[in-house]
Amino acid sequence: MSLSFIVPGLDEATSEKVIAILQNRLSQEQEAALVLKHAHWNVKGPNFIAVHEMIDPEVDSVLAQADETAERIATLGGSPDGRADSVIRHRTWKEFDLEGRQSTEDYLKALIEYYDSFIADDRKAIAELDELDVISSNIIQDHVQELEKFQWFMRSHLG
């Protein structure tokens, strides 16, 4: 990786490690927005409109997280990779595999499971970033807080 510059207080090796962690998080954030939109389009059955309308603001929230992560990568002198093939190349998590028109309950259960991994991966990144760059760690901490809140919404919807 070639850095455009190095921010004060970080060396090149540390910056590269932080950027690699953030790129992985960016890829999952981007994928999560796609997964959520897929669910938004394909839920059906009881509580359809409630779940359909609950998901769209989360798409926006996750895209805002991706933007913040990408901008942090650029701030650190890196080049964020937002291409679709980058999501696949950086995937270290289980692929979301629910397809087609399914019940709101099935989609919520699948999304809750996806969020389990998403949140755990973010928490792992936080632990790594705490040792490398507290600013980047704080950004991901804020993201986890929002992800956990939405996961609570989904769990509460199921009862």
From TrEMBL:
Occurrences of domain Ferritin/DPS (ranges): 19-159
Keywords: DNA-binding
Molecular function GO terms recorded: DNA binding; ferric iron binding; oxidoreductase activity, acting on metal ions
PROSITE patterns reported in the protein's UniProt record: DPS_1
InterPro entries registered for this protein in UniProt: DPS_DNA-bd (IPR002177), DPS_DNA-bd_CS (IPR023188), Ferritin-like (IPR012347), Ferritin-like_SF (IPR009078), Ferritin_DPS_dom (IPR008331)
Assigned protein family: Belongs to the Dps family.
Name of the protein in question: DNA-binding ferritin-like protein
